[in-house]
Design goal:
Residues 1-254 form the EAL domain. This is Bifunctional diguanylate cyclase/phosphodiesterase. It comes from Methylobacterium tardum. The structure is a single chain. This protein starts with 6 loop residues before the first helix and ends in a 5-residue tail after the last helix. By secondary structure, it is α/β, with parallel strands linked by helices. The protein is globular and about 50 Å long. It has a single domain (4-249), classed as EAL domain (TIM Barrel, Alpha-Beta Barrel). 44% of the residues lie in helices and 22% in strands. It contains 12 helices and 10 strands. Helix 3 packs parallel to helix 5 (105-116) and helix 5 (105-116) packs parallel to helix 7. It has an 8-stranded mixed beta barrel with strand order 1-2-4-5-6-7-8-9, surrounded by 4 helices. The longest helix has 21 residues, at 63-83. The structure holds guanosine-5'-monophosphate (2 copies), sodium ion and manganese (II) ion. One guanosine-5'-monophosphate binds at residues 21, 37, 94, 156-157, 180, 213-216, 234-235, 240.
Amino acid sequence: HTCRDEMGRAVEHGEFVLFYQPQVRLSDGALVGAEALIRWQHPERGLLAPAAFLDALDTSRYAAPVGDWVLRTACEQAVAWRNAGAPEFRMGVNLCSAQVQRGDLAETVQATLSDTGLPAAGLEVEITENIVLRHDAEVIAALHTLHEAGVGIAFDDYGTGYASLSLLKRFPLTRLKIDRSFVTGMLASHQDVTIVRAILQLGRGFDLAVIAEGIETEAEYTRLREKGCQEGQGYLFGKPMPADVFAARFGLAK
Ligand code: G
Ligand code: G
Ligand code: NA
Ligand code: MN
């Protein structure tokens, strides 16, 4: 059997779960939000990471429904944590191609915000260069609507794909996410340092916030903070974890 044959069952039985990885402000280490990351609690194979199923999911007819479930679940969680001691908490949610292609992205996101009661500023959707390149005009219109409503729009894995710099002019972004590969390399490689510095400068020039992904060491943390990177995400601050573990770790009472 393929992974895909099992996906209908997984949807029906609620086998997908969300983990949450903390995002912190580098100046003082304060928690500012989390990125929601999908996992599949497979009955035989155990807990599966996205690498094991995301390609199959994205090309199946379950991509958009699962994406909608991710969005809704993450927004509900954000509301709960905002009410439990983190009033400014921001939730990052990865969008998949199917959600964007369907043509009702802005409506879906806005309905989810109003159903869950999460303020627009409490949500940041993450898009990748691939998604952006494939659905130009339609995506831009939907993202403009969301941007005007106050939803954050982050460019994920920035600098790794084929997107040209001119995308920064055409897309209503609020944040760049420096890809983990550049962070991992920056202590050893002058090339990676140069790329990180360039992304931070683009952020300042385009008035975009910047978050660095994949921070694993104090040395990386220090370098990024010194260079003016505002926020970070990575194993140093916490791996992706179940909601209850996250809440206990950050003192978010139930
Ligand atoms: O931690 P990790 O293995 O969770 O994530 C691997 C990749 O899977 C990342 O590129 C991440 O953006 C992607 N990913 C994780 N969760 C989701 C999700 O809910 N939807 C989409 N579209 N991508 C996700
Ligand atoms: O959306 P994206 O591709 O950026 O998802 C982040 C991915 O990177 C997830 O698979 C997550 O588990 C992983 N990740 C997050 N922080 C770190 C880190 O500090 N080190 C490593 N090696 N992986 C990380
Ligand atoms: Na992401
Ligand atoms: Mn990313």
